[in-house]
Structure formats: C-alpha cells, structure tokens
Amino acid sequence: xxxxxxxxxxxxxxxxxxxxxxxxxxxxxxxxxxxxxxxxxxxxxxxxxxxxxxxxxxxxxxxxxxxxxxxxxxxxxxxxxxxxxxxxxxxxxxxxxxxxxxxxxxxxxxxxxxxxxxxxxxxxxxxxxxxxxxxxxxxxxxxxxxxxxxxxxxxxxxxxxxxxxxxxxxxxxxxxxxxxxxxxxxxxxxxxxxxxxxxxxxxxxxxxxxxxxxxxxxxxxxxxxxxxxxxxxxxxxxxxxxxxxxxxxxxxxxxxxxxx
Length: 260
Description:
- This is DUF1295 domain-containing protein.
- This protein is an all-alpha fold.
- The protein contains eleven helices and no strands.
C-alpha cells in the first residue's frame, strides 16, 4: 500500500500547483496551458514519492527516471505548442462560451479535475517507488519494453505532426503520412502503451496490482473523453478529406491503411 503521509503530501502539493496555475489563468484569460502541466504533474508525483520515501531499490529509480523522461519530453512539447498559439484552445473557448462564470468555475472544472486525475492515475508511481522490494525481473523487462515502444511512438508522432503544421501549405489539410498513415492518433496510442508499461513495472511487487485503475482510466480518457472522440468531432468539421482519411486509416491501433 501507499503510505498515508505520502498520499497527503502529494495531494497537498498537486492542489497547490493547480490552484496557483488557476490564479495565473485569470489575468491571462486562457487556461490552455494546463495541458502542458498534465505530464509535468506526474513528474512531480514521482519526485515527491522518491524524495519523501528515500527508497534504495533500483525499481524506484527506474520508475522515477522513466516518468521524468516522459514528463519533460511531453511537457516541453505541449508548452512550446501553447506559446505558439495566438488564442485559447477551442475546447476551452467552447467551455467559456457555455459557462458565464467560467473564469471562476475553471478552478474545479479544469484545474481541480486535472489535479484529481493526476493523483489517481499517478497511484502506480507512488506505489512502485515507495514499495519497491521485489527483485527486478521479467515483468519489469516487459514494462520497460512497452514504455520504450510507446515513448518512441508518441515522440515520433508528435514530431511528424509539428513538422506538418510548420508548413503553411498544409493549412486545412490532413496529415496522412508516416505513423499517421497507420493510425489517426498514433501519439495517443503511444501514450497508452507507455502507461501500461509503467504500471507493469510498478506492480512487479504484486501488492500493487490494485493500481490497475491508473492505466484503465488513462486509456478510457484517451478513447472516450478528452482524446479521440473529442478530437474526431472537430477534425471532421475543420479538415477537408478527413472522412476519406478516416475510412482508410485505423482510429487507434496502428496497422497498414485499408485499400480504397
């Protein structure tokens, strides 16, 4: 189990971070930068767990290193993307339009909710770091393999998308080359795979199997809430030829495109 004092400390720090970011959003009139905090929040959870419990087992250091690598890579990518956007993300613009008091409501519907999700999904990180005891073995190797594959796919997909968007000639077009020819959302698929990898490393000590709620929740969020389903609705409206692209390309799990 996760030490209660670690849970309390982590909850307090994440709550303080999200509250501070909410205060920052008020003069900016923009909450989009919370997306960049999403991966960084898990890095914070991992580092709190490591510093607070001072584990000596190599599994703890492995979970910390992998989480930090992913958090820095994705956080930097999302932060730079936010800096390049001239206005608030369309998702949050729509929420702001529907809610007259959105500036204040965003404390719990955006920042508070994201903080809570970070704590729940971060449970394997806390458990894997604070309870590391069993020797490294096959489950760790499998988890490491999944993490590396997922990390590389997410990073490569993001790089291909960024390069595509930098070309002004691609405005309004659909990216259908590289990994994006095999999946409409290869970055999300990679993210899902790497989180299952982190979970397997954390549960190599079998008392942590209950944290399976983390990768299940992450997968559900990507597939049904803030990932595929939300993006698809907007892309079909804004991108000419998206329906044809969707007809020949897998929505999630990469595989060769279908013939016309």
